[in-house]
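Below is how a single chain appears once it has passed through the pipeline. First comes the sequence as given, then the structure the pipeline wrote out for it. We keep one example in the README because the format questions we get most often are answered faster by looking than by reading.
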Amino acid sequence: MKNIDTAFRHVRGFTILVVAGSTVITCYALYKSFSSVALMQDKVYILANGKALEAYASDRKDNVPVEARDHIKTFHQYFFSLDPDDKVIKANVTKALYLADNSVKRIYDDLKENSYYSGIISGNISQTIVVDSVKIDINEYPYRFKCFSRQSIIRTTSILSRNLITEGTLRNVSRSDNNPHGFLIERFNTIENKDLGTVSRKP
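Resulting structure:
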């Protein structure tokens, strides 16, 4: 009887230990499962060229300098890249005007009134721009910027190089297809537009 009682106690203790261990393991497994599911739900994957790329969410403040510089660069490329084609000029200027306020519209109207764009078309002139750098101050809103770039004015017989420095401010607006960065250029002004030199083109 004593041996049976001792064996029963051992079996009961072992059973309790196994049940307790199983309960702990089950709870841990459930916790890790829910944690993994929650972590996966926070991730977004983008399919590009047949490959799944993971996208990370971040605060807008972390991306302000990068997005602002790209916004300014995009605006300059649209507004200052011209070809002797009325439709190309209108398309580029229209895209640029979505990124800026009336200060740019006034510049466009003045250039148009002075037959600047007509001269480009009649003279078969192309104008390109390369943005060297953009300095932006995000410590004060609206953000002030200064853009340093080089223009090339390509004529039939020569290529004129110009140094272009512009400035202005940026304020936040709603993002859209026409303005993906959600900025608007205000108080746009040209500080310097100086000729650097002319290179003759071979006939």
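The radius of gyration is 32 Å.

See the next section for the split statistics.
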